[in-house]
Amino acid sequence: MTPPRGPASGATMRKANHLTIGEVAEQTGLSASVIRIREMRYGWPTPEHAANGFRYYSESLTSALHWVSAQIQRGRSIGEILRDPLFPREVAPSASATRSRRSPADFSHIPDPLSADGIRLRRTLEQAIATNDRGMVARIQAECLRLKPDERERACDALLRELR
Known about the structure:
This protein is mainly alpha-helical. The chain contains seven helices and three strands, in the order E-H-H-E-E-H-H-H-H-H. The chain starts with 18 loop residues before the first strand and ends with a helix.
């Protein structure tokens, strides 16, 4: 017989007002895998980790993830969002917060603004990535090839590199 897993097993006590990654994903519209990838690549978000590896998100971190999700819906990249002066500083990544084997991606070299097509493709691509829709990612990738090379880099290529 397999022992029970998860918070119900008593191995981990969840703090009041903290959510699991699944609950945060459901509330924000960001997939759990996208949230995990961003934690590894950018050192953000930084949930509390239980001894069993479960992630627990505070109310302020969940609110920040809502804000990030809204910014992505507006066509902004995660790198741009994390550098935004309006980013909630109380949950912002610290300079030493990276947990990945690689250093966080730096999108400061990517100029803006994009054309209407570039913005549309970036928004659609980020939404496809956030929902883990591989078919849509492939279709958008093909559409990105129609953009001029410099705009393709700004609208699509940088996001696609995040997936590798």
